[in-house]
Amino acid sequence: MPVATAEDILLKWRKEFPILSETTYLVTHSMGAMPKKAAVYLNRYLEEWNKEGVTAWDKWLPYVLEHGNLIGSLIDAPEETIIMHQNVSTLTAIAISSIFQPGKRSKVVTTDLNFPSVYYNWKMHESIGMKIHMIRSPDGITIPLEAWEEAIDEETLAVVIDHGIFRSGFMQDVKAITKMAHEKGAYSFVDAYQTTGCVPFSVLDWDADFATGGSHKWLCGGAGAAWMYVKEDLIPKVEPRVTGWLSQANPFNFDLNMEFASNAMRFATGTLGIPALYAARAGTEIIAEIGVDAIRQKSLQLTEKLINLAVSNGFQVNTPRDPDQRAGMVCIDFPGADQVEQELIKRKIIVDYRPKCGIRISPHFYTTEEEIDLFYDELMKLRNS
Ligand SMILES: Cc1ncc(COP(=O)(O)O)c(C=O)c1O
After folding, report:
1. What is the Å distance from ligand 1's center to 221 Cα?
2. Domain map of the chain by residue range?
3. Between vectors from CA 275 to CA 269 and to CA 278, what angle results, nearest 5°?
4. Which of 229, 216, 115, 231 has its CA nearest to residue 165?
């Protein structure tokens, strides 16, 4: 009997993702494909609501931390250190409200390649004394470690690190930057949206204070289930100003004397988006079952293939060639790339285009080599037409 290769084992999952039989789906960096089982869990939510009414909260409330623990199993986070919310933007506001005190340390180091939504939240505190130090990328692709070293000082409250850069796929050395931050007494806040589920990492090894990400990209979980990890020994030391009744140790006491929960529920606000968590469950379970190491190995092979084909066909590649500096996607640019992206989508080859970046293409565990070849065949035809 023929032995199944690692590749066969990954591709056996394709049938669980219906969109893969309809399209060439190379856009996981933006929105991962939906697993069939997402519908099973969403229906379970509806059944619980229908049959159990208000008593379904006995399951739904504990599920928030359970879902966090499931994410935690992928990123080496201890149990009950992850809170779920609708999006990373909200989580950023909660994190800032936990550590920024006007009149105290106020400098925040960020970069012009970070995802803007997170930046907006820090930036909006300038009117109450926050000082933003923006590191400018020298090439639109990378941020040198020396630039962090120069920027971080005794005034620094926090460093805001995007692990995988959404415009280039560059991967930053979070551990090294966090170490620089800690040496000066600053916090590290990591946005790992572009790597969670496609690059293995450990929040403990990073020694990160806060790390965040969400469900709708590499975790194949649909919209509205973002997560934030907070370092275990930091949780009891901070009190978020952006808050609500579910952050309390005993929320059903409805007490005006506040007492925060001792676990990640401290960063909850009010009623949580349970359907989004149910929708996100199947994708995260599948990633956990496959294992992020296996996903990374395949991702590196296919992103390398994408880069080699781009270089040999004379495209500008806006993604690092060094595998240690590359997350899960490849960006290629040329005049007219935005129009070509539209034409590719008409041909059911799903990628996207971003200014200052080009066409973004990402393989995941469910992508075949033939799909990469098909993408290039069409790209060459369109470029030459
Ligand atoms: C690096 C990064 N952070 C955050 C987000 C999303 O933020 P939010 O959950 O606030 O929509 C994205 C993309 O959607 C992203 O690429």
Report:
1. 14
2. 6-35+292-384, 40-288
3. 110
4. 115
Structure tokens at 80: 């009950």
At CA 374, angle to CA 372 and CA 379, rounded to 5? Answer: 95
- 111 neighbors 134 (Cβ within 8 angstroms): yes
CA distance linking residue 88 with residue 7, whole number of Å: 33
> Could you tell me if the CB of 194 is within 6 A of ligand 1?
yes
The one-letter amino acid at 334: F
The CA distance from 43 to 112, in Å, is 42
- The maximal CA–CA distance of the chain, rounded, in angstroms, is 71
Mean pLDDT in consecutive groups of 10 residues from the start of the chain, 385 residues: 71 95 97 98 98 98 98 98 98 98 96 97 98 97 98 98 97 98 98 98 98 98 98 98 98 96 98 97 97 96 96 95 97 95 97 94 96 95 85
Query: Which of 28, 91, 193 gets mutated to test ligand 1 (max ligand atoms within 8 A of its CB)?
Result: 193
Structure tokens at 351: 């990628």
CA–CA distance, 167 with 354 (Å, rounded to integer): 7
Q: How far apart (Å, rounded) are the C-alpha atoms in residues 350 and 352? A: 7
Q: How many CA atoms lie within 13 A of 258 on its CB side?
A: 11
Helix/strand/coil for 360 = strand
Is 0.85 topped by the overall pTM?
A: yes
Q: 278 burial class (0-12, 13-18, 19+ CB within 10 angstroms)? A: buried
Q: What is the DSSP letter of 271?
A: S
For domain 40-288, say whether CATH 1.25.40.20 is its number.
no
Do the domains 6-35+292-384 and 40-288 sit in the same CATH topology, yes or no?
no
DSSP state of 128: G
Probe target for ligand 1 pocket from 30, 191, 331, with the most ligand atoms within 8 Å of CB: 191
Q: Is the CB of 83 under 6 A from ligand 1?
A: no
The total of other beta-carbon atoms located within 10 Å of residue 5's CB is: 9
Beta-carbon count within 10 A of 147 CB: 16
Does domain 6-35+292-384 correspond to CATH entry 3.40.50.11930? no
The Cα 174–Cα 193 span in angstroms is: 13
Evaluate: CB of 297 within 6 angstroms of ligand 1: no
